[in-house]
Amino acid sequence: MAGEKYEWIIGSAPPPLEEHSRVKNKVYAKYLYRYVKVLTANPMHDGLNLTLVDGFAGGGRYRDRSSSVPGSPIILLNEIQALQAEFDLERKKPFHLKANFIFVEKLKPSIEFLRNEIANSIHANGLDRNIHLINSTFEEQCSTIIEKIRARGRAHRAIFFLDQYGYNTVSFGSIRRILAELEHPEVILTFSVDALINYLSTDEAFLKGILPTGLTQDDVLVLLWQFLGDGVN
Ligand SMILES: C[S@@+](CC[C@H](N)C(=O)[O-])C[C@H]1O[C@@H](n2cnc3c(N)ncnc32)[C@H](O)[C@@H]1O
Predict the structure, then answer these.
(1) 3-state SS string over the chain?
(2) What is the pTM of this model?
C-alpha cells in the first residue's frame, strides 16, 4: 500500500531496521526470557501454557546494513525455541513450553511476507498449528483473541506485544478488557511520546485542563490519563 511507512513485499528487500526497533526488539527478547524463567523456576513443574500475541507483526524481517535481522514475530518464535532447548539441557524432569503465537498484521502483502519467512524457517512445522497469522487490525481482533485465550483455561498465560505506531491505535478500552478479562495478562505497549506531545500541545481541551496554576507534574499526569481514557478513544 503506497505511503505506508513499513511494508513488506515478497521478492523485494524488507524495510531498514531503525534504532528504536532494534532496542524494542531487544527488550521483547529479554522480557520474554525473564518472564518464562521466573514462571518456571520450580523444577517440579513440567510445563507452561502461554499465548504470545504480536498485534502489529509486520513482515518478520528487516534490512540491517549489508545483512538482515529478524522482526518481532520471528524473535518471539526464536526465543521460545531457545528457552525450550535450555530446558531440555538443564532439566531432569522433561519440561514443555506450550506456546501459541497469534500474529496480527493489517497489510496483506506484509502478512504474506511473514508467512513466507516462517515457512522458510525452523518454525515452519508450527504454521497454522500453534502459529496463527491474521490479516486484520488488532482492534478488530482483540475480542476474539481474548475469547480464544480464555477458552484455554485459567492457568493459561498471555503476553500482548503491541507495537503501535503513534500513541492511540490501541484503544484504552482494549487494554482494559485484556487486563480485566484474562487471568494473568501482560501488555507491552509501544507509545510514541513525541506524537502524543505534538497532539496535546494543540488540543484545546487538554490545554484548558493544565492552565490552572498550582498543578504538580503528577496532577498533569493524572489529567493526561483521564484525557486519554475519555477523550481520545
Ligand atoms: C513498525 S511495524 C512493526 C513490526 C514488528 N512489530 C517488528 O518490530 O518487527 C508496524 C506494523 O504494524 C502494522 N499495522 C499498523 N496498524 C495496524 C493495526 N491497527 N493492526 C495491525 N497491524 C497494524 C503495519 O502495517 C506494520 O507492518
Answers:
(1) CCCCCCCCCCCCCCCECCHHHHHHHHHHHHHHHHHHHHHCCCCCCCEEEEEEEECCCCCCEEEECCEEEECHHHHHHHHHHHHHHHHHHHCCCCCEEEEEEEEEECCHHHHHHHHHHHHCCCCHHHECCCEEEEECCHHHHHHHHHHHHHHCCCCCEEEEEECCCCCCCCCHHHHHHHHHHCCCEEEEECCCHHHHHHHHCCCHHHHHHHCCCCCCHHHHHHHHHHHHHHHHC
(2) 0.86
